[in-house]
Amino acid sequence: MSLSMYQASIPVFKQMLGGLSGVLAKAEAHASARKIDPNALLQARLYPDMFALLRQVQVAADFAKSVSARLAGVDVPSFEDKEASFADLQARIAKTLAFIETLTPAQMDGSETRAIVTQAGTPKEKTFTGQSYLLNYGLPHFFFHTTSAYAILRHSGVEVGKKDYIGSY
Asked: Containing domain of residue 134, as a range?
């Protein structure tokens, strides 16, 4: 039995974005209950040279939508990076989920051998096969940013665990 590109991507993105949404909801409730300025959590980072929580979530959502779009052979939707609250981040996740829900398995059929070019025309241009793009680039980057967002909140005292991170499956 083979695993399709759709099966290896869309359900994973949906599950992990759902987990991320749940973790953010717990973080917002944590801030409210403890009278913590939400911005303290939104701007928290694990180390000074790493992205803050807010940016980690934006980038995780960007990877979910861009990897899915490229594998489906459709234009990557452009989202402005203007989020400034937990509600804004939840809206970005919802918008990302709504987009990937529009993609079908048929759109991804054969994408494992499709040439995927990232940052076309730039000095950092890189060409992958669809399978390599998903497994060696897209998913690892997506998981890095979802994990970093979780770790920032856990480190900040938000009571979340592995079940929250994993989400529903």
From this structure: 5-166
